[in-house]
Design goal:
globular, mainly alpha, binds fe (ii) ion, binds protoporphyrin IX containing FE, 16 helices
């Protein structure tokens, strides 16, 4: 589908491989949204596709596709930035391409198994072949092992290229962080009979990804992006990066405790989780300030010199700025809301959690990864200044309004659950259903669906823009460079 995008202007194989990963990422993003829409319709009309395509499957594919498209876009971003940061080609591009195809074939098989073979009893064998049963990481064991092999190849490529090339601060953080990120995946691969122990280790993947290693990853992308787009000073950007890394790991690692409140782990996790996870918004503020400060400073400098084009990639900068806001709001504010055990005892597992999940994943990750795709296109078409088109603007506006709208709707339903199901009716099984049939809940679900449709329309425009902006900017650039000589 996205093969129409040309990558001829890219000198490095590594960057071309990056673009391959971006293409699959955007397709999986689309699949994620379609599954979300199906699940959202089923909330309102439970008989929709009943026994043909169950809610459990739609939900599972929705969140697994989410994780996988983000991993694809992350790997793509790394391959894309390696030549810029190390000054050289990746050491083994051939194997990297092979690994890409193996991974993509495996993902396709897993998705087909998710969609067609999920009903029946679970045995040891189904863990290996059908579904491992861990939310977000349901892929069966064979695929887990395949993923580990592919990631080892990826990591070898990154590390060896780093060691042979220039070693910037950004790449040093990247290499160390990827080691942790990949290593944590192993925590979700073994099976125990105790659900407490199982959940205990599962959170090492989920929480230590999204609140530690993925956040550090985003820090490196923002640093790289600000240098590329604004020409920000490397020393300053890297200084921020080191501070952010320190704070992210300082709060994020023990912040893990906010998932150990009610799963059967010792009670000291209440205090540890409360304290450290309450500190987690601090580095997110730093990241927020960092992006906006650098942006403002560079803009001011160029304006003082009377120049234009302070931003050489409009859409990428818009998405990175959205990331700074979104990360702070979705992870920082919506996370902080329910992170103290005194609050979480009421909000745990309500639609409030869902509101936070949507805004955080979107704000902290989807945004900046889309920004990286625009940066990739700029390189692929060899464009000096890539301006936002009407499509770019419509796409970002509709997607942001859609996700914010869903978040507000889900927050209201969550609030209703807290008041009615938890506080008033005492969190019984019956209360769970009573709360879900009240108007505030049902209307909230209706608005979530409406806003989901808005998000999806925005996504369609985004794809149209990604497919055409390169060619259009190139034509514009061509005519712009002809004009002065004609005048
Ligand atoms: C970008 C970063 C983040 C992402 C992507 C994220 C995402 C999520 C998701 C998807 C869940 C639901 C997990 C499940 O299915 O059970 C969750 C739960 C939770 N998150 Fe975050 N989160 C982030 C950062 C934060 C931060 C910074 C805080 C605290 C300050 C926080 C506090 C919590 C808490 C307390 C829960 C448990 C909710 C419950 O008990 O139901 N999160 N997060
Ligand atoms: C078309 C737009 C979307 C719709 C209609 C939609 C709908 C849904 C539905 C119905 C669920 C299941 C909730 C439940 O079990 O109560 C869900 C879960 C989830 N979705 Fe979406 N979604 C959409 C877009 C997104 C986006 C853009 C992201 C992130 C980038 C996202 C991330 C998640 C996450 C992390 C969960 C699990 C939350 C949790 O367990 O608390 N979704 N979504
Ligand atoms: Fe967490």
């Amino acid at each position: 589908m996205l093969n129409s995008i040309k990558t001829n202007s890219l000198q490095y194989e590594s960057k071309k491989i990056g673009m391959m990963y971006f293409r699959v990422a955007i397709i999986l993003f689309g699949a994620q949204l379609l599954m979300g829409l199906i699940a959202a319709i089923q909330f309102l009309y439970p008989s929709f596709l009943f026994e043909i395509f169950d809610f459990s499957v739609a939900r599972m594919v929705h969140i697994n596709a989410l994780v996988v498209w983000m991993l694809y876009a992350m790997i793509g971003s790394v391959y894309y930035m390696i030549p810029d940061e190390t000054g050289r080609e990746v050491v083994a591009p051939g194997i990297a391409k092979l690994a890409f195809w193996v991974l993509t074939a495996a993902v396709a098989v897993v998705v087909l198994v998710y969609i067609f073979i999920q009903v029946g009893s679970g045995t040891e064998m189904t863990i290996w072949l059908i579904n491992e049963g861990r939310e977000y990481l349901e892929a069966p064991r064979w695929a887990d092992i395949g993923i580990v092999v592919v990631v080892l190849i990826f990591y070898y490529n990154v590390l060896a290229t780093y060691l042979k090339g220039e070693r910037t601060g950004i790449m040093t953080v990247m290499v160390a962080n990827l080691f942790a990120l990949a290593g944590l995946y192993l925590c979700g691969m073994f099976f125990t009979d105790s659900i407490t122990m199982d959940q205990y280790w599962w959170w090492w993947v989920i929480h230590l990804w999204v609140e530690a290693t993925w956040e550090v990853f985003v820090g490196t992308l923002a640093a790289y992006g600000l240098i590329k787009i604004l020409g920000a000073k490397r020393e300053i950007v890297e200084m921020w990066l080191w501070i952010e890394v320190l704070m992210l790991l300082g709060s994020g690692i023990l912040g893990l405790g906010h998932h150990y409140f009610w799963i059967g782990t010792p009670e000291y996790w209440w205090e540890i989780g409360a304290l450290f996870s309450a500190l987690e918004p601090v580095p997110l503020v730093a990241m927020f300030v960092h992006v906006l400060y650098d942006w403002g400073k560079e803009q001011g400098k160029v304006e003082a010199e009377g120049g234009a084009h302070a931003i050489n990639n409009g859409p990428a900068m818009a998405w990175i700025a959205t990331n700074a806001f979104g990360n702070f709001l979705g992870a920082g504010i919506w996370g902080f809301f329910h992170t103290l055990p005194q609050v979480n005892i009421y909000t745990h597992g309500t639609q409030f959690t869902n509101a936070h999940g949507h805004l955080a994943f979107f704000g902290a990750y989807a945004t900046i990864l889309i920004g990286m795709m625009y940066l990739g296109l700029q390189g692929a078409y060899g464009i000096k200044h890539m301006r936002a088109t009407a499509l770019s603007k419509w796409a970002i506006s509709l997607i942001v309004i859609g996700v914010l709208g869903m978040t507000v709707a889900l927050t209201i339903t969550g609030y209703e659950q807290v008041l009615v199901e938890r506080a008033e009716l005492g969190a019984t099984w019956e209360a769970y259903f009573t709360a879900q049939n009240l108007l505030w809940y049902v209307q909230g679900m209706g608005w979530r669906l409406v806003m989901g449709v808005v998000t999806f329309i925005g996504f369609v425009l985004l794809v149209m823009d990604l497919l055409t902006i390169g060619q259009r900017s190139k034509e514009q650039q061509g005519s712009a460079s002809i004009q002065p000589s004609a005048a």
